[in-house]
Amino acid sequence: MNNKTIFGTIIAFIIGTACCWVPMLIVLFGGTVGATAVASGLNAISLPFLLLGVGLMSYGFYKSKEKNKPMPIILESRITCPKCNHAKEETMPTDACAYFYECENCKVVLKPLKGDCCVYCSYGTVDCPPIQEGKACC
Ligand SMILES: [Zn+2]
After folding, report:
1. DSSP β-bridge partners for residue 79
2. In Å, how far from its chain's centre is CA 85?
3. Measured between alpha carbons, how far is 123 from 79 in angstroms, rounded to an integer?
4. 65 partner at 20 to 30 Å CA-CA among 50, 83, 85, 113?
């Protein structure tokens, strides 16, 4: 057996066992969270229940990753009018972009600054939901 054959065997082994170690990585990742959660009552929990817990945690982790929401989206933003400095709490829409915003105090119609996608990004305290989600624009 020469070196080339050994190398080929190793590659074949990695590819052949991919079906086993890929889910293992996911279970390990979710299991870490699960183990932390049940650590206090570990002695009282039997192995089947522990495995079930780890399984559910992995499933939960997998589902939350699927939703692609690493952090909660902030919808409350305080818009400050650049003309009169009047500030007002607004709830941002998640499905639409606020391109125009009329200041309730001086009635000036605000438009996004150059490079911003909406008035919340330009005048609000937090960026608009699509920006928070990591999308380029809303
Ligand atoms: Zn104003």
Report:
1. 88
2. 33
3. 5
4. 50
Calculate how far, in angstroms, residue 123's C-alpha sits from the geometric centre of ligand 1.
11
Q: Give the 3-state secondary structure of residue 101.
A: strand
How many helices (H) and strands (E) in the chain?
A: 5, 4
pLDDT for 86-132, tens place per residue?
999 999 988 777 899 999 999 999 999 999 989 999 999 999 988 88
97 C-alpha to ligand 1 centroid (Å): 20
The two structure tokens encoding residue 111: 């438009």
Q: Where are the alpha helices (DSSP H) in the chain?
A: 3-16, 18-38, 47-67, 119-123, 129-132
pTM of the full structure? 0.47
Closest CA to 91 of 81, 83, 101: 101
Cα 106 to ligand 1 centroid, rounded to whole Å? 4
Ligand 1 centroid – CA 100 distance (Å): 13
Do the beta carbons of residue 100 and residue 108 sit within 8 Å? no
Note the pLDDT of residue 124.
Answer: 95
